[in-house]
């Protein structure tokens, strides 16, 4: 696995193994209605062809986790990081006992990758993805590389899902079963694709102002403080969900006095988050 000093050193064609990803699945006849009452986006409008940014909050509107929500076959998937995901999983299971829904840490079912858009367009990667998702589906994904009203274009098959990451460095996130992961890994092993560690995707998310909470930052900020609304990750017109009152009041009464920004320094410095 290759390492770099800065994002400026990245080639245009590359892949990142998302080793810190946590994938929570919800499945069952009440999975949609249950998650509708838990996160900031309208699950009832989440189609099989889309993914969305989301936040999951406590009853005070403080954020347990952020990430992407999408569907795969009969499951709803929340894609976040390990630290935040462990908090969300515990809270979802705490209240999920009253609904007909199975809530699991499904991380081991999928291998997660970020693949740059230029890499996806190469013949080798495009051919591999076309075997997993069909050529027409991959073409549809490539033709829709900008968010539509907050929805990110997505394709799926029995092997997994792929959707646009909505990052400043354009690319897709791919969640694959073992057979699908073998195809991507074979491209890496053949050195067709340069492979980078999780820290590179972390840097891309920072550059894109995609805030992922972890450590002391869990349950510390309302979603607007960490840019979730700018990613269309809050539907202010949906019904009740955990923390909705505080999130709505923060918007409509102008109570938010913090915001997330991305900036760059020329030298190395030690900073304390928060």
Q: Summed up, what is this model?
A:
One of its GO terms (molecular function) is transferase activity. This protein has about 270 residues and is an alpha+beta fold.
How would you describe the overall organization of this protein?
The chain contains 8 helices and 11 strands. The protein is α+β, with helices and mostly antiparallel strands and 274 residues long. The chain has an 11-stranded mixed beta sheet with strand order 6-2-5-4-3-8-9-10-7-1-11. Helix 4 crosses helix 5 and helix 4 packs antiparallel against helix 6. It is globular and about 50 Å long. The model has no long low-confidence stretch (mean pLDDT 92).
Provide key terms for this protein.
Alpha-Beta Plaits, alpha+beta, 274 residues, eleven-stranded mixed beta sheet, transferase, YgfZ/GcvT
Low-confidence stretches: none
The CATH architecture category of the largest domain equals 2-Layer Sandwich
Oligomer kind: single chain
Question: Strand portion, in percent?
Answer: 15-25%
CATH topology of the largest domain: Alpha-Beta Plaits
Average pLDDT taken over every residue: 92
> How many discrete structural domains?
2
Encode the helix/strand succession as letters: EEHEEEHEEHHHEEEHEHH
CATH homologous superfamily identity of the largest domain:
Aminomethyltransferase beta-barrel domains
Shape: globular
| Helix content range | 25-40%
Structural class: alpha+beta
Major pleated sheet: 11 strands, mixed
Task: Give the C-alpha Rg.
Answer: 18 Å
């Amino acid at each position: 696995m290759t390492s770099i000093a800065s994002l400026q050193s990245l080639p245009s064609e590359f892949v990142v193994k998302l080793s810190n990803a946590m994938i929570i699945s919800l499945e069952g006849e009440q999975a949609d209605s249950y998650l509708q009452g838990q996160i900031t986006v309208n699950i009832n409008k989440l189609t099989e062809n889309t993914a969305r940014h989301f936040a999951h909050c406590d009853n005070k509107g403080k954020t347990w986790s952020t990430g992407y929500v999408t569907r795969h076959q009969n499951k709803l998937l929340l894609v976040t990081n390990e630290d935040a995901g462990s908090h969300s999983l515990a809270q979802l299971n705490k209240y999920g006992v009253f609904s007909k829904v199975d809530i699991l840490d499904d991380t081991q079912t999928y291998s997660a990758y970020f693949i740059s858009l230029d890499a996806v367009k190469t013949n080798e990667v495009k051919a591999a993805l076309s075997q997993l998702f069909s050529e027409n589906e991959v073409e549809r994904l490539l033709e829709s590389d900008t968010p539509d009203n907050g929805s990110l274009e997505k394709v799926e098959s029995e092997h997994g899902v792929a959707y646009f990451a909505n990052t400043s460095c354009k690319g897709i996130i791919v969640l694959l079963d073992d057979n699908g992961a073998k195809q991507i890994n074979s491209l890496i092993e053949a050195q067709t694709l340069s492979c980078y560690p999780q820290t590179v995707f972390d840097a891309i998310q920072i550059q894109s102002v995609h805030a992922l909470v972890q450590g002391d930052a869990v349950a510390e900020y309302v979603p607007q403080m960490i840019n979730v609304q700018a990613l269309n990750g809050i539907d202010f017109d949906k019904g009740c969900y955990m923390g909705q009152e505080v999130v709505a009041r923060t918007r409509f009464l102008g109570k938010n006095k913090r915001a997330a920004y991305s900036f760059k320094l020329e030298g190395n410095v030690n900073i304390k988050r928060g």
